[in-house]
Amino acid sequence: MDRLHELEVFVAVADAGSFAKAGARLRLSPPAVTRAVSALEDRLGARVFNRTTRSLTITDVGQRFLESARRVLTDLDAAEKEAVGETAVPNGHLTITASVTFGRSALAPVVCGFLSQHPRVTASAVLLDRIVNLVEEGIDVAVRIGALPDSNLIAKRIGTVRRVLVASPVYLARRGIPATPADLKLHSVIAFTGLMPNREWRFSSEQGPNSVTINPVFEINDAVAAIDAAEVGHGITIALSYMVHDKIRDGTLTTVLDNYAPPPSPVHFVYPQARLVAPKIRAFIDYSAPRLKLALDQFAGTG
Fold first, then answer.
1. Cβ distance 161 to 189 under 8 Å?
2. Between residues 90 and 165, which one has the greater pLDDT?
3. Which of 167, 177, 184, 291 is buried most, with the most CB atoms less than 10 Å from its CB?
């Protein structure tokens, strides 16, 4: 049996969660789908699915093999298109993910500019405050903020962002300006959990990296809500520089403890490895990287 056919059927079953649905998608009979999966399992010497009359689940072996199978099929598709000249102009649908606030403030305008220059490309922006599995969730490119874990993804650094503490001038006039990290214990702190895990603020000092434990008056997992609460005078909160750039420029928020700010966090594009990178991905990164770097450099000047 054709090994590529086996891979196509395997990926289709994994995506559909059903032999019958995969068969309908590929226009194959249920017995043909079963034969292809069985042939793949015989070749691997292990089951890729656990299946009963009521359920279908992928095995650990199948899960490990799935990403490689997807990559083989993607590379083959790209090679065929390149052979017939379809890759000269970027085309197709592009799916990008980023955090909600970064997507709103920086990414969305850049995507719109890219699409205006590449009319054969359409795009979806998936804004989520969590790390997604690019292969499993069908994402072409992600923007990741912070140190990257070891992975088989390709990464392109596009800039940095700063972590800053901010409060409204009204709050600081009422409660005073903290002079050292320890002074935060005397203040009302609004903790955005995404940047203040374990209720700690991590800072730099002459002795090196350090942290101070905070007892926040308000703790929330939404950055915008934390910033809004600080803006109306409820306390000091933590944010990334791009989140509060406009508010600091307008004077509605002020940074504090700048001398103790931790080192900037890197910002990367990441995308799955492939021997042939799709033209839409390559074109998007080439277009977006310098523009996002310029925006990040402007945000880095905050305060």
1. no
2. 165
3. 167
Looking at the chain, list the stretches that DSSP marks H as alpha helix, in order from N- to C-terminal side: 3-16, 19-26, 30-44, 60-83, 100-102, 108-117, 169-175, 223-231, 241-250, 279-300
Report yes or no: 5 and 28 within 8 Å, Cβ to Cβ: no
Considering all CA atoms of the chain, what is the largest pairwise distance in Å, rounded to the nearest integer? 77
* C-alpha span between 251 and 253 (Å, rounded): 5
Q: Residue 127: beta bridge partners?
A: 98
Look at residue 87 in the predicted model and tell me its pLDDT.
Answer: 55
Tell me which residue of 136, 100, 97 sits closest to 270, measured CA to CA: 97
For residue 117, the tally of other CB atoms under 10 A from its CB is 10
**127 neighbors 142 (Cβ within 8 angstroms):** no
CA distance 239 to 195: 7
Helix or strand or coil: residue 213?
A: strand
Please, how many CA atoms are within 13 Å of residue 26, restricted to the half-sphere of its CB? Answer: 26
Q: How far is the C-alpha of 85 from the C-alpha of 173, rounded, in Å?
A: 65
- 150 Cβ contact list (under 8 Å, min separation 6): none
Model confidence at 302, in pLDDT bands (50, 70, 90)? Answer: very low
Of 234, 231, 238, 236, the closest CA to residue 252 belongs to 231
Question: Which residue ranges form the domains of the chain, and what is each CATH number?
Answer: 3-83 (1.10.10.10), 89-159+265-300 (3.40.190.10), 163-260 (3.40.190.10)
Q: What is the mean pLDDT of residues 47-57?
A: 87
Contact 262, 133 (CB under 8 A): no
Return the number of other C-beta atoms located less than 10 Å from residue 114's C-beta: 22
